[in-house]
Each structure stands twice: as structure tokens, then as C-alpha cells.
Amino acid sequence: MPGNKIVRRRNEEAARQGWKCHWCKVPMTPVPPYKSGIAYQPTMVTLDHMFPKGDQRRRNPPRSGERRYVAACRLCNEDRGKAHEKDLKHRSGLKSLQFGRQPLPLEPAS
């Protein structure tokens, strides 16, 4: 089944982090087996890029021990993506997007 490798990688990274979201520290749930029409939980584990699109660090090969991805809950991953998209649109002079929640910080919680 396609996707098993990424599911395994998500779950391995989550286990390495103690099943806590890298950004908000909320406990995450494992990725369920794929079923058509399933609604994924906001706490489901995802892989999130450490650096936003366009960041030079994403273009260069990783340094020894450097992490490019972290395990994050689905909600944090989506909110960070929306916040970055909003920032890009704002910089380009386009109308910025409106969101119901406050954007999450781009740095991990302490």
C-alpha cells in the first residue's frame, strides 16, 4: 500500500519525541490506517518542515545531525502553513487571508 513508508516515518519521529507535538507539546495520536472518507483527528501526527518554503537552509544539504522535519500535530502543521502563506501573500501585496485562530508561533513551546 502506498504511503506505508511515510506513515512509519511519522510514527517513528513521534515516538522519538515522546508522542508530544514539537510546537505545542500536546499528546499526538498515531496515523490510522487509510480508509476512504475518514476524518483525521487534529492531534494526528504529521511531519512538519523545520524551515519555511524559500528558506535557504531547505536548499542546502543537511549538516551532520541537522533535522529537517519534526513530528507535529495536524493542527499545528496546518496553522504554521497558513501563517507562512499569509505572510507570503502580505509581502507580495496581495490581500492576506483571514483565519479563525491566532497563528501559532514559528518557534517551539518551552
Describe the protein:
With 110 residues, the protein is of the alpha+beta class. It has a single domain (4-34, 41-91), classed as His-Me finger endonuclease fold. It is 32% helix and 9% strand. It has helices at residues 4-16, 56-59, 74-91; strands at residues 45-49, 69-73. It has a two-stranded antiparallel ribbon with strand order 1-2. The longest helix is centred in the C-terminal third of the chain and has 18 residues, at 74-91. It is globular and about 40 Å long. Residues 94-100 have low confidence and may be disordered.
How would you summarize what this structure contains?
With 110 residues, this protein is of the alpha+beta class. Helices cover 32% and strands 9% of the residues. The chain has one domain: His-Me finger endonuclease fold, CATH 3.40.1800.
What are the SSEs and their pairings?
Layout: H1 4-16, E1 45-49, H2 56-59, E2 69-73, H3 74-91
Antiparallel strand pairs: 1-2
